[in-house]
Task: structure prediction
Amino acid sequence: MTVSITTSSWRDLKNAKAQARLERALPAIFPAPVLHHALTRPLIPPTPRLAVESYWRNHILRADRLARALAARSGTPEGWTWQLGEGGAGGRPASFRVPPAPFREPAFARGRGACCICGQPVYRFGWHRDLWGQGVPNGKAGWHAACVAAWKFWSAPHEQVKVLKRHQGHRCKASGKRLLRTAEVDHALPLYRVWREHRDAPWPELLGYWGAPNLQVVNRTAHVLKCRDEAAERSQTLRLSRYRVVEDESGFSVVEEE
Result:
């Protein structure tokens, strides 16, 4: 005899087992918003760590704000400057499109127990505060759950287009018109200009150019026009950079470099 089971019955059974496992593993103190979020998911995460990860993954703008606030608490490491490394040399990013992360570079890494993204101590379940009063960070951890979510957001903001659309009221930042289904995520200040004009800014301030303060959703037509203007500006800047002013006996002259 074959017994059929509906999708809802399967989900209820799976969630009952996951909730029982989660409740067995929960410590006496656990962030209430995280627990509430976990118990209201379509599929309940079965462990506290998975519950924390799910919380930040589904509150990406909150994770972005927290990660940048933690970075501001750490400050720019002494002696660090934003530099690129060919092929990832020295732990430095190969492109200016990758967010700067000094604590991922071996020269400035703080080791286990400290987040490699923001530099602050990491506690149980990847949490950013010592809710359990242990007094020491988790020596096995190397990142906050919130910072991991934020890093993924900074690296691939287009994956959060629905969240960003909702954040700006479904209105195109460029035209003010309603956002279409084909709308795209864009950096208001392009990253090549961040590298060119703001590379000496304090590191925590730099992160804002990858986060929500510098992200916008625009309709594709407006995005194409913006990209066209940016490409023209970059081309003009490149052409001008080929010339330099020199002084000789006859005065000043402009010389084109080879």
In short: Residues 220-240 form the longest helix (21 residues). The radius of gyration is 24 Å. The chain has nine helices and four strands.
